[in-house]
């Protein structure tokens, strides 16, 4: 994978990314792309619990236009805070949004 000037190559396809490395075009995302981004983020295999969070994030984004905050994730996704940090170490909402093909949640640094 290479990143240059807002373009990232994932699985042989060039995709636009924002300054944080998140996909710009939501239509570029699919489960294979998610798995590849996860590997890049240090998550070797996406489990059922990872997918529960990713699918919740995508559902919230489709309804509101915003990626859910960590607070919303822990209250409504069915995955508690401790588990969220175990699944997505070092910034779970930000990392999960990236893997879900969504923009970084507002309020994440």
3D architecture notes:
- The protein is mainly alpha-helical.
- It has one domain: Arc Repressor Mutant, subunit A.
- It has 5 helices and 3 strands; from the N terminus they run βββααααα.
- The longest helix has 17 residues, at 48-64.
Strand order of the largest sheet: 1-2-3
SSE-based structural type: mainly alpha
* Number of separate helices: 5
What is the CATH architecture descriptor?
Orthogonal Bundle
Shape: globular
Indicate the topology.
Blueprint: E1 3-4, E2 7-10, E3 13-16, H1 31-40, H2 48-64, H3 70-76, H4 81-87, H5 92-99
Antiparallel strand pairs: 1-2, 2-3
Short description:
The protein is mostly helical and 109 residues long. It is globular. The chain has a single domain (3-99), classed as Arc Repressor Mutant, subunit A.
Q: Top keywords for this entry?
A:
single chain; 109 residues; mainly alpha; Arc Repressor Mutant, subunit A; three-stranded antiparallel β-sheet; 45% helix; globular
């Amino acid at each position: 994978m290479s990143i240059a000037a807002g373009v990232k190559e994932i699985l042989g396809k060039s995709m636009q990314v924002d300054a944080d490395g998140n996909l710009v075009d939501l239509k570029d995302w699919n489960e294979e792309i998610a798995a590849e981004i996860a590997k890049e983020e240090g998550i070797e295999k996406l489990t059922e619990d990872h997918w529960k969070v990713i699918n919740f994030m995508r559902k919230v984004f489709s309804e509101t236009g915003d990626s859910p905050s960590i607070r919303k994730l822990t209250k409504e996704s069915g995955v508690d805070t401790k588990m969220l940090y175990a699944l997505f170490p070092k910034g779970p909402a930000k990392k999960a949004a990236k893997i879900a093909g969504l923009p970084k949640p507002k309020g994440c640094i």
